[in-house]
Prior knowledge:
Blueprint lengths: L5 H22 L3 E5 L7 E4 L2 E4 L18 H32 L6 H26 L1 E6 L2 E6 H4 E3 L1 H20 L3
Antiparallel strand pairs: 1-2, 1-6, 2-3, 4-5
Helix pairs in contact: 1-2, 1-5, 2-3, 3-5
Organism: Leptomonas pyrrhocoris (Firebug parasite)
Protein name: Amastin-like surface protein-like protein
Keywords: Membrane, Transmembrane, Transmembrane helix
Amino acid sequence: MICLPGVLLAVVCIILEAIVFFLCVIGTPIDVYKSKVNTSPRLCYSMWGYKRCGAHKANPDKLPNKGFPTSNIRSTMNAAAAFAIISIFLALVSMIMSVLLVCKCLSRIIPGVFSVIAFITTLIVWACQAGVYYKKYSVSSFGVETKIKIKDGFNYAGSFGLFVAAWCLQTIEMILVFFA
């Protein structure tokens, strides 16, 4: 793959970055966790809070902490949402930089730097989601403190998989752009 001419490699980078951009745009608003209990309506969590699964408004009941069991989970998911938006922006900028690389308007270092930053922000998104999924949180209800894990009542939904896929493709693109 390294033997490919620089322009062709830059075109591959544009295609990969377009896919990363698309995955980040789709993965940002959709469900991160889906309830294991198949009730009607089925409950989910997006990065924006608790909701009915599917295309429904997050936290329709205006629950505290956006419906998350603790403020720590809310804070972590807010960070994931912020980095998801940053990832969308950086994927778009990286794609534009790759187009400029094809035109030989700039050196490969500049698109490479943007790709590295996009790699990091995309990693942070799914790392926050995975961290919330596996970590034990203390929840106090009526003076009784219990330990919970999101993992015990929920499975991963689409957003997590899309961000992991975006991160994998961003990793490949990040390496290739330095050889373009």
